[in-house]
Amino acid sequence: MDVAIFTRDAQRMGSTPAIVLLAAFPYDHRMWEGVARRFEGVPVIAIDPPGFGHSPLPVNSPSLEIYADYVAQAVRAEGAEKILVCGNSMGGYTAQAMIERHPRLVGGVVLVGTKADIDTPQARAARTEMAISALVGRAHSQLVQGIPTMLAKETVADFPKIPQLMEKWINETSGEAISWAQRALATRPGRLETLERAQIPAMVVRGEQDTNSTAAQAEAMAKALGTRVVSVPRAGHLVPLEAPSAVARAVMSVYQRMC
């Protein structure tokens, strides 16, 4: 089992660190297109999460650790020996699992709109409920209705193509993939201690209007990593879609410290 990957400037893989981009739930590599095009001359690998986009649905029990292992296997197969991993939301949780499980591979990290602590019991229950409803075709409408809560109010008002794209991508996703991801997310551990032990170049990025990951959670990750939080105005939870240039600047700032 592997994950689908999409590369740019792959001919430099191995001779220089690669940037690996991990998507938020319930999206695939396409959410990173606005960011990836800003990395001219740098090897980039964007990943479709298990079951999303062109990646097959795993036969394994749902686990972000399994996802992290798939990513590590895929990027090594491309020739990458050292990576900067950048993840948004679910991608950020998976990036933290990669730091823990593949420390020799991960040489830098940028965590965007994510957190390092476990879900509350209420959030875990909501994920379990969605995992069940996804299998009977009821999750897509719930996710579409929640699109405005993932974005800044300015994004919704001024850039209607972004929520339209999000709705399109949601409706292209299978209920089985949604269910697998939600069960994997519900069982993830906290990883602040992992971040404290990492000792790698890092940055934390958060949209000022993010209602899903708090400023306190971002600061806790930044403190553990020995770095700072970049707060992006007029952005919510999905900063790579809303403010790709801000994310690209943060990634390149960390990347330059690796090279």
Protein described:
By secondary structure, this protein is an alpha/beta fold. The protein has one domain (5-118, 190-258): Rossmann fold, CATH 3.40.50.1820. Helices cover 47% and strands 14% of the residues. It is built from 13 helices and 7 strands. Strands 1-3-2-4-5-6-7 form a 7-stranded mixed sheet, sandwiched between helices. α10 packs parallel to α11. The protein is globular.
Task: Quickly describe the structure.
The chain has 259 residues and is an alpha/beta fold. It has helices at 33-36, 64-77, 90-101, 121-134, 139-145, 147-150, 153-158, 161-172, 175-186, 192-198, 215-225, 239-242, 244-258, and strands at 5-8, 18-22, 44-47, 83-88, 106-112, 202-207, 229-232.
User: Could you tell me the mean pLDDT?
Assistant: 96
Query: Helix-strand pattern, N to C?
Result: EEHEHEHEHHHHHHHEHEHH
CATH topology: Rossmann fold
Distance between the first and last residues' Cα: 32 Å
Molecular shape: globular
Low-confidence stretches: none
What integer value in Å does the Rg equal? 17 Å
Percent of residues in beta strands?
A: 5-15%
CATH architecture: 3-Layer(aba) Sandwich
Structural class: alpha/beta
Number of strands: 7
Widest beta sheet: strand line-up: 1-3-2-4-5-6-7
| CATH-assigned homologous superfamily | Alpha/Beta hydrolase fold, catalytic domain
Question: CATH top level?
Answer: Alpha Beta
For the structure shown, list the relevant keywords:
259 residues; alpha/beta; Rossmann fold; 7-stranded mixed β-sheet
Layout: helices, strands, pairs:
Elements: E1 5-8, E2 18-22, H1 33-36, E3 44-47, H2 64-77, E4 83-88, H3 90-101, E5 106-112, H4 121-134, H5 139-145, H6 147-150, H7 153-158, H8 161-172, H9 175-186, H10 192-198, E6 202-207, H11 215-225, E7 229-232, H12 239-242, H13 244-258
Parallel strand pairs: 2-3, 2-4, 4-5, 5-6, 6-7
Antiparallel strand pairs: 1-3
